[in-house]
Amino acid sequence: MRIAGFFILLFGAALARAEVVLLSENHSPALLALAEGVSTALGKPVRQVHSQSQIKEQDLVIIAGDSMVRNWDGNQKSIAVWSRREAIEANRSNIDSAVFSEPPLQRQLDLTRLLFPDSRVAITVSAEVPTWVAVEINQLQGDDFEVFTNKPEESLNRTLKAALANHDVLLGTLDRGVYNPSTIKNILITAYRQNIPLIGPHQAYIRAGAIATTYSSLADTVKRLVELIEADVLPPPGYNPYFSVTMNEQVARSLDILLPSDTSELTSQLR
After folding, report:
1. Per-residue pLDDT tens for 245-268?
2. How far apart are CA 216 and CA 65, in angstroms?
3. pTM of the complete model
4. Residue burial 49-74, b: 16+ Cβ < 10 Å; e: rest
5. Pick the CATH number of 2-101+216-240 from 3.40.50.300, 3.40.50.720, 3.40.50.2300, 2.30.42.10
6. Which of 20, 107, 214, 264 has the greatest CB tally within 10 Å of its CB?
7. Which CATH class is domain 105-215+245-270?
8. CA 110 from chain center: how many Å?
């Protein structure tokens, strides 16, 4: 046990001493802010690069963006960030750790219950639902929700109408077979015609017309990244424990729904 502890301490010290590199496709303002935030918190520079050939053997690498995450094959310790879950899962064997950008489904269901107590919740997935989405659905706690599968021989609209028939809220998932840019308008129109709100799978859906979701800000992401970098051992990919609630007041007014005024109180109840 003492020997194991010694190596954990040694590994943790190596992580702390390693130079931190941000690997990304570009120098967008958001990525610059991410690098600056991590640099300030750690008290040392974060070098930005756009190619694996620019990375040293002992660097600790923050990999940002779907393309970089999918193509990563380096031996350096790595943390994926600001990438879709499917990109991380597709290259899981080469990624040491990650901060998922999207929120966990259980948290989203808990938010739904806070906003709409005693409501019946509908969850719609495709026949080819991603494994991690199916796992999270199977782990959901409670009996106030029902899952509807969009079978290949059925239109999404037909499945949606069946799901909404006896339910009060639609809970979105990260199943892109159902929720994607080409389907979201139809989903929202179908739901709102029946005065049923959508809890968005992630923050982008708030702009599209979802009524609420949880999300992790830049500051939340920096905070979690710094924790991982300073950890004795990099943990497996996981969700960010730091987040906030955001709501679409315009949609709420359109549906004649009164939302809580204090999102910080909702956030604290979900933690």
Report:
1. 999 999 999 999 999 989 999 999
2. 16
3. 0.91
4. eeebeebeeebbbbbbbbebbbebeb
5. 3.40.50.2300
6. 214
7. alpha beta
8. 15
